[in-house]
Amino acid sequence: MNRVRTKICGVTSPADARAAAAAGADAVGLVFAERSTRRVTTECAAEIAAALPPFVSRVALFMDNDAREIADVLDAVPLDFLQFHGAEPASFCNGFDRPYIKAVPMGEPGVRLTDWAERYPRASAFLLDANRVGEAGGQGQAFDWRIAVEAIDRPIVIAGGLDPDNVGAAIARFSPYAVDVSSGVESAPGRKCSERMRAFVNAATEMGKA
Ligand SMILES: O=C(O)c1ccccc1NCC(=O)[C@H](O)[C@H](O)COP(=O)(O)O
């Protein structure tokens, strides 16, 4: 099995970003979704981006934000990837000259990953999350892992309710390219815990080696 990448999402301070990088995370997610408890301002996001060392990807997460706001964020913050969690069509996601990840709401019945791959031909990866359409992610809830996930031609990222104790089982079940966590490595809402991040990355990396 190849090394499984890790993304720590919902980072809200430069200190937590540095701790995520020190824990070995491959990517850090900055939430710009409205009404999220983890939402960062553009200024804060720029400070977080500046705090990260080279080769740790900076991912900005949006959920039906308007195009002007996304363009303003991109002008101010050096970002490697966008992540779209709402009902954004492919034409919208394609409009920012950045590679993007599309979140797939696995809380919906009858999700067919091949349909998503067809609808978003330029998505770099698909992030399978626990929410239903229109619901925010980052709730610490897993989707039903018994759902059949079809093979597609792009990487998949597993998210939703992961933590240091269950991430190995998620990797064994889905053989994903990467795993994504937010609530499961927090000490309080929006505050990441260094020990839990380290335990999460270690568990994912160990499992990926098996
Ligand atoms: O984290 C949020 O507040 C959020 C708000 C709106 C849309 C998406 C959001 N987070 C999405 C993520 O990428 C989370 O990392 C993912 O849903 C997993 O979260 P968790 O179950 O808490 O580990």
From TrEMBL:
Catalytic activity: N-(5-phospho-beta-D-ribosyl)anthranilate = 1-(2-carboxyphenylamino)-1-deoxy-D-ribulose 5-phosphate
Keywords on record: Amino-acid biosynthesis, Aromatic amino acid biosynthesis, Isomerase, Tryptophan biosynthesis
EC numbers: 5.3.1.24
Top-rank lineage group of the source organism: Bacteria
InterPro entries linked: Aldolase_TIM, PRAI_dom, RibuloseP-bd_barrel, TrpF_fam
GO molecular function, one term: phosphoribosylanthranilate isomerase activity
Residue ranges constituting the N-(5'phosphoribosyl) anthranilate isomerase (PRAI) domain according to the UniProt record: 7-202
Pathway: Amino-acid biosynthesis; L-tryptophan biosynthesis; L-tryptophan from chorismate: step 3/5
GO biological process: L-tryptophan biosynthetic process
Gene3D superfamilies: Aldolase class I
Pfam family, one: PRAI
Family: Belongs to the TrpF family.
Protein name, UniProt field: N-(5'-phosphoribosyl)anthranilate isomerase
